[in-house]
Amino acid sequence: MSDLPAPAATGPLGLLYRTRPDAVAALARIWDVLPDARLVGGAVRDLLCGRAVTDIDLATAVPPQDVMERLRAAGVKVVPTGLAHGTVTAVIDGLPHEITTLRRDVRTDGRHAQVAWTDDWREDAARRDFTINAMSCDRAGVVHDPFGGRADLAAGCVRFVGDARARITEDALRVLRFFRFNARYGGDVPDAQAMAAATALAPMVDHLSVERIWSELRRILAGPRVAQTLALMEHAGVLGRILPEGYDLSRLGRLLACDAPVDALLRCAALFAGDMGGIAQRLRLSRADARFVLAVQGGAAPHPGMTAHDIARMLAADPADILIARAWLRQAEELGQPDARWDALRDVIARTPRPVFPLAGRDVVAAGCTPGPRVGEVLEQVRQWWLAGGCAAGRAACLGHLRQVLAG
């Protein structure tokens, strides 16, 4: 195996090797097999602006079948993750590295693309969405930037490669991606051509799968500048199309003003309006996500001034994460700004063990109650007594009250 050149300390590869030392050996093995391969897309973009890199993707002019054969011959495990689009995954030391053959679009329909292989790096870069995603970095650390992405990155400009309308027509998801990337990498004023194209072609998002819409929306909600981004999406006529049931930007804005944690689902609970169950079903949220959002918007919310017994009773009904999220929403609705009392309330909820009622139906039967409907009635009567006492009574005390109920 040959050694990698020592990258300049200020270059993108230098930053990668300092922040991801696990990548050094893996990239050396890949570059020994595919010396023309380059880092592409998000890895180059984030390295140039000093951000941590998670996914390390590469591109090569070598056809995908040849890529697989070369890597396997070198003892590298290869998974054909997307051969139709030229992508294979090299697994080195347990870490995946996607390698995609240079492509050009043969035909697009706004959702899917038919591609053909090419050896032209510029042609491959031209099919990418934004200039900041169209850069590549070779083994020597040289950044190849055919469309001015580096300057756009420095200027805080998220700009489509070439004609914005043409890029969106190729894939309607780029409307939502524009707003997500502009939130993270753009400035205060979005690129005029990009904004105009996203506005004019907003109806195209109606044809996207709800899974793709939810994936982008969730990332937007978990990212920076949420309020500004959603306001731009509303102005462009996009937000109403992806949330036709309704939304409440004012409530979300008050939640953000409270310095609530960065939590996409909590922000969903503040943003979504109308039929929550219908929204969750239409967007096909996972059961856990839907359960969380529905629970946060429904049920009693804690508030400062509650006693320990009050909090215990609420915890007996709902877990701490739900109560804490409800507290954030209630603070947003009532106050709309940071407040130490609400912070203290959430801290108490988080530190309070969740009480569990210590009896079950079998305990009622064992105490002499004939099996049947009365068992549930008696058990609930004892449980209400336990709740009234702030869930403080233990098993022995509850059994004692059970006997009193049965005796009475």
Automatic annotation (TrEMBL):
EC number of the protein: 2.7.7.72
Domain of life: Bacteria
Keyword Nucleotidyltransferase: yes
Ranges of residues in domain Poly A polymerase head: 37-159
Gene Ontology MF annotations: CCA tRNA nucleotidyltransferase activity; metal ion binding; nucleotide binding; tRNA binding
Annotated tRNA nucleotidyltransferase/poly(A) polymerase RNA and SrmB- binding domain residues: 193-245
Record-linked Gene3D superfamilies: Beta Polymerase, domain 2, cca-adding enzyme, domain 2
Keyword Methyltransferase part of the UniProt annotation: no
EC class: transferase
One Pfam match: PolyA_pol_RNAbd
Cofactor: Mg(2+)
GO biological process: tRNA processing
InterPro entries to which the protein is assigned, alphabetical: Bact_CCA-adding_enz_type3_sf, NT_sf, PolA_pol_head_dom, PolyA_RNA-bd
Alphabetical UniProt keywords: Magnesium, Metal-binding, Nucleotide-binding, Nucleotidyltransferase, RNA-binding, Transferase, tRNA processing
Family: Belongs to the tRNA nucleotidyltransferase/poly(A) polymerase family.
Protein's UniProt name: CCA-adding enzyme
Species, as recorded: Novacetimonas maltaceti
